[in-house]
Design a protein that fits this description.
heterodimer, A: mainly beta, 7-stranded mixed β-sheet, globular, B: mainly beta, 4-stranded antiparallel β-sheet
Chain lengths: ~110, ~110
């Protein structure tokens, strides 16, 4: 059973607010990912990390930023939320060398 | 970067019907292939995976998938679906160190 946690599960926030979505894993995985998923749509990779102090942008242009100061923690920050950021955000982790990813429950974000 | 295509957006079947969901990817090198399932209100879970060896892989809950390298395909199959298989199914490819997903196929199984 994977141990990867995302908080909050649901968030409704006003336009212009700064928010941080938390993601933590207790499996010691080096690789971590953030995906954005709209209902009925594919998962878009927005950020990933190979390990501490490593962050990379994914395929989908995103106005969010990430940090990786500790192995277990990979928070995603939106400096100024907009309605177009309304979506579900999924965090995942895995070991390097192309192994599977383990997913958290997701954070459903609504910006009003 | 690699891409993943899932041909069916929504599949509706009756219980006991056979299932095949298509998945094609575009990447010429070595890939690892996955099928994930997302039940309503739950997180994504691994259904099965292919790394190397026998191209026919078996996963949980009676699912299997066949890797056909010449067709760049990794189709998911189940001989007889159950109502509890109602979920969203995602094909994924991991090459060059990052994971890419298809658009997903929603499966609805009618009792």
């Amino acid at each position: 059973e994977a141990d990867i946690y995302q908080t909050p599960r649901y968030l409704v926030i006003g336009t212009g607010k700064k928010i941080t979505l938390e993601c933590s894993q207790t499996m010691g995985h080096d690789k971590m990912y953030w995906y954005q998923q709209d209902p009925g749509m594919e998962l878009h990779l927005i950020h990933y990390s190979y390990g501490v102090n490593s962050t990379e942008k994914g395929d989908l242009s995103s106005e969010s930023t990430v940090s990786r100061i500790r192995t277990e923690h990979f928070p995603l920050t939106l400096e100024s939320a907009r309605p177009s950021h309304t979506s579900q955000y999924l965090c995942a982790s895995g070991q390097p060398l192309n192994t599977e990813a383990f997913f958290g429950q997701g954070t459903r974000l609504t910006v009003v | 970067a690699q891409s993943v295509s899932q041909h069916n957006h929504h599949v509706i079947l009756s219980e006991a019907a056979s299932l095949e969901l298509g998945c094609n990817y575009s990447y010429g090198g070595t890939v690892n292939l996955f099928w994930y399932v997302q039940y309503p209100g739950q997180h994504l879970q691994l259904l099965l995976k292919y790394f190397s060896g026998d191209p026919l892989v078996k996963g949980i809950k009676g699912f299997e998938a066949e890797f056909i390298k010449s067709k760049f395909s990794f189709n998911l199959r189940k001989p007889s679906v159950q109502w509890s298989d109602t979920a969203e199914y995602f094909c994924a490819v991991n090459a060059q160190g990052d994971m890419r997903f298809g658009a997903g196929t929603r499966l609805t199984v009618k009792p």
